[in-house]
Structures
1.
Amino acid sequence: MSNDSASFAPRPTAPDLAALLGPSKLPRVGTTIFTVMSALAAKHGAVNLGQGFPDFDCDPKLQRYFAEAIAAGHNQYAPMAGVPALRQAIAAKIARLYGRAYDAETEITITAGATQALMTAVLALARPGDEVIVLEPVYDSYVPSIELAGARPVFVPLDAARGYAPDWDRVRGAITPRTRALMINFPHNPTGRILREEDLRALEAIVESTGLFVISDEVYEHIVFDGQPHRSVATSPLLAERSVVISSFGKTFHTTGWKIGYACAPRALSAELRKVHQFMVFAVNTPGQHAVARYLEDAAPYQTLAAFYQAKRDLFVAGLARTRFRLLPCEGTYFVLADYSALSDLPEAEFAQKMIVDYGVAVIPVSVFYERPFEGRVVRFCFAKKDETLRAALDRLQAA
Ligand code: PMP
Ligand code: GLN
């Protein structure tokens, strides 16, 4: 049969399509800064400390588990909520670490990374006209998720003058009868801030006196430094009753490309979440879930993660101290912020471009985590990199 183009209707031209499409549902969304910076880094041969992903591989044992799961025939749809062995392993981990007994059958859902868990939680909870509070600087997927739900994001800044501490009075002040949920992320990307006991108590007081739900993004739960514990909202019975707790194995097992995460919430909340999840992905890749479930039988990989990254933080921080960047505290995550005002007056986005071209190091301007134009002089470095990569970046920065 002839395959020439005459047998097809003519393709509409670009302007026709734009007219047909009409206003975008997400008019302010373009390619994410993480992708843009990685592409620019590759183009200019810069050391990429921008996008947050490890440049080293995951454990060969975990790779073998994935291959063995495929060879064992785990290649068809997983149960909608996730492979039972993985849900049970997560339930056991949370019970051991945070003292909350989630029911693996009804309260834990395996998602395609934390990104899908976040979108699913927001779509399940926020209704058109609702307000959802986010803390600025805010991770890039939160606001589009809220907008797709037809809800309105309400921005409350973290207190930069107090090490990006959450300002619970301002959170309380932002609550209206329309407020449906609060989205939090600790350890916090990009500031590295962790929660204190008093933060949990303040949050409890807010949740107790309002009908607020909490969506708690805890993807960096195992990357907390200097002997501090991770204070999950799951450690608080009151908060756990009102929260969706989200995490991801991408950060914990150096497998950002596997896209396996999870959402834990009380039964009624999980039931709503699963209604969305079911038609967003139905289920997440099966062999990967089996591999992670098996790998979780050994607690060492996640229990040693904080020390592993603390050594990288310390290496990087010691090297950067010999430059004119001024480091900000880093309590957790694999990111550290640095003020560059001694080096340049340029706005952050321009300085980040200059760093790629002139210094040969890619970073993320912190202004991209703010809704409004933001006048800081701070960039984010990712230190989830081989020591040799960090040293190469430091050599370049020290010469700058
Ligand atoms: N939340 C935060 C704060 C993150 O930093 C990231 C990824 N870097 C995600 C969610 C997304 O996680 P995943 O890759 O598992 O979708
Ligand atoms: N969350 C990662 C970061 O903050 C990037 C993930 C992505 O590229 N979507 O750098």
Note: The pocket of glutamine (ligand 2) is lined by residues 32, 34, 51-52, 189 (CB under 6 Å).
2.
Amino acid sequence: MIFKSHKLLTEHLKKKVKSSETIGFVPTMGALHQGHISLMKAAISQCDQLVVSIFVNPTQFDNKKDLEKYPRTINNDIKLIQKFITTDQLTIYAPEVKDVYGKQTVAKTYRYDGLEHVMEGANRPGHFNGVGTILEFLFKVIDPDQAFFGEKDFQQLQIVKKLVAQQKWHIKIIGCPIEREPHGLAMSSRNERLSPEARKKAQFIYTSLKLAKIYFQQHSIKKTQKLVEALFKKEPGFELEYFTIASEETLKPVVRKYKKHHYRGFIVAYLEGVRLIDNIAL
Ligand code: PAF
């Protein structure tokens, strides 16, 4: 069933889901692709019921144009979900902005122990306040046992884990591997905005991450960073916003390698004016 009202959604879930059953939740902003479907498949393999939300959350966009251009394909989204998930296990929540925010579309302020100050937090002011606000609302009205997030937005995943721990909510946050297009581009709703040539060319982002991973085994952080920057300088059409090597846990950029620490390379680059994001475990 599909709901536009959170009140009706909560009532429906209270009736539909037995106390012995578990709810898996996949929050999305629509324009669904196989990456989202893989999250839904993971959720339904681990839980009895699946709730999917489809909502382009205005408060997490720091750029008005980006919000306007964000693809909205609700009818196709619903068809795609129903192709993979049986309807008796599925509930969809696809509200209008008013149902979520009421009269004032504003975000609350959150502190995530510093995780919010780096990378996406530094480059997109207010973004993680918007993410926190919508997830607090959705978790409240859905009351899931588990919620599933893609590792493409690795910083978001760590921030959601932090939020849930800080608030002592009983929700297990599950990170799922990045799904990629055949050439290696990380799947994203934004890929729709690329021309077919650019979509193929964008594989360069993942290629450079894989090269960085190999290079990192033998070289310093600084040298690996320089390598990626040099690769992007030579590649026409791309504008590198950042390539950062950071600790997986704190997300703080690192300057020296230590044994037994887990590092990740995080990248954001523009192609045809589209902001593309990816990361790799180093
Ligand atoms: O990752 C996303 O698509 C969004 O940030 C989320 C988690 C659905 C919140 O709007």
Note: Residues 27-29, 57, 60, 131, 134, 153, 156 surround pantoate (CB under 6 Å).
